[in-house]
Amino acid sequence: MAPKFQLNDMTQSIETDVLIAGGGPFGLMLANELGRRNIRCLLVDPKPSTAFNPQANATQARTMEHFRRLGFANEIRAQGLPPHHPTDIAYLTRFSGTELARLRLPTAAAAPQAIKAMSGSWSAAELPHRVSQKFVEVSLRQHAEKFASNDIRYGWKLESFSDSSIDTSSKQFTQTAASKPIQALIERVNESSQNASTTLDRIQVHANYLIGADGARSSIRHHLQIPWGGATGFKRNFMGGKMLAVYLKAPQFYERNQNDRAWMYVAVNPELRAFIMSVDGESEFAFHVQMSDDAATEALNAEDAKRLFSLAYGQVIDIEILSMATWLAGHALVADSFQKGNIFLGGDAVHLFTPTGGLGYNTAVEDAVNLGWKLSAVLKGQAQPALLNSYEIERKPLAIRNTGYARQFADSIGLFDADKALEDTSPEGEQARSIASEYLNGHARREFNIPGVTFGGRYMQSPLIVADGTQAPADAANTYTPSACPGGRPPHAWLPDGTSLFDHFNFEWTLLVLGKDKSLLAQDALKFSEAASQCHLDFKVLSFDSQELLDLYEANLVLIRPDQIVAWRGKNAIEATQILKQ
Length: 582
Prior knowledge:
Layout: E1 12-21, H1 25-36, E2 41-45, E3 58-59, H2 61-70, H3 73-77, E4 89-92, E5 99-103, H4 111-114, E6 129-130, H5 133-144, E7 150-154, E8 156-163, E9 182-188, E10 202-212, H6 219-223, E11 228-231, E12 241-249, E13 264-268, E14 273-278, E15 284-290, H7 295-298, H8 302-313, E16 320-329, E17 332-335, E18 339-340, E19 343-345, E20 351-353, H9 359-379, H10 389-414, H11 427-448, H12 451-455, E21 509-514, H13 518-534, E22 539-544, H14 547-553, E23 557-560, E24 566-570, H15 576-581
Parallel strand pairs: 1-2, 1-10, 2-7, 4-13, 10-19, 21-22
Antiparallel strand pairs: 3-6, 4-5, 8-9, 9-10, 11-17, 12-15, 12-16, 13-14, 14-15, 17-20, 18-19, 21-23, 23-24
Helix pairs in contact: 1-5, 1-9, 9-10, 10-11
């Protein structure tokens, strides 16, 4: 991505702290994290606006907790399906055929109250929400644009860049007095962009950091010559190989379907394998069907897509195709590195999933949450640049973990064979449906009831975590054991006033003080506050004398990071300064 042309004195030049290339979930979430902290941020994306196609369709509970932390979880939950539309996952011979299995889940309207009655594995501030990424991106963009420190530009692309910390060969960029290491050129590609602040088509950008949020085919990762690790090319009967994706309108979908409504329908039969998700709960759907890896698949047209939809639905109904494309399932890839010099990568640029479990977009959001507070701490002078090395140390193992879980879910559904007699009215057909029902009901719980995946990720090898010698609970997809063992998500609790404990955490650092010895604990809290002041940290002491919370956290003092991760827990503040500096 070397500069393609010489710049001249007429080229406008602007400065920013962070240049983000890409306006998907990772880039937009990072812009929100930085904007909230008043860090100057410029985001560019060559698309004219946020995503048109539905793309990801499941927002996991931990992601919803982060949206809650930023103040717009209720706004997200109000989007997508109508409030009382079922969010079930149903498995059928055809979308309007015989139901084989179903996982029933709370509606968006029921979720806020339902979560308050849950405990154990589902002790949380939020339940998952079924909403297409196209809606989430709009909200993320709107909130990012509210911050005066943010400059969000769709219809602009990153044309070229250099990082003086790793590349001293490029002399075509004019150095500024600030001598910022990132020198980049952005170019307008959409003349109708409403966010452009200049009539010039090219702008030189000087930044402290460049963020590659430019997706699976990341040109930034390619330029940095960072290869993929992991595995790809998994072949399965379903969710392996070439898939056809069709965004469509089907106004008759529900009225011609005798089955109970669901959010997602999975067709299991020997003729074809497919799934469809409701986008708006009325007429818009995202339809995906397994295809062959051949030229014929690439040559499919709208009439072919309608024929395949009719086969999957089980009868002919009118549909309108809004868009269609092929994509490749069977990935479990993680980039060898997430950073080079002052350039960082996140989201699809560093991890590619087969979308079982809906983990790709949710992992991307947590990438942004992790990187955001660290960039802010360094740019504000609260920490040395070495703090940023922890981003890869913490997030890469989680990416490997999550792609591994997605692969397990894909194997579970994709390697299941649909019996040839599955749709027969014979005794053999009844037996085949009974066997399929037992298996698919089990699979539904394995893929979609995943509190362990959602809440159980931990940063056990991080230099930012002060270990206390305790053993974290075992990592398992379908069960989660709340634990304040340093390195993981803090255990959740609902307080007597009906609020979430998480709602009371500081946006930056929190010291949770638990116990009834108020005099001694107040002294400990003061020591931490003084140490935090020396480190110039935004710090809050949160005290409760609840025995239940003390039993849950198993310590009188618990240090909570800005990304709501337990950094340390203990009984006194003797080493407060050392702990905060670490």
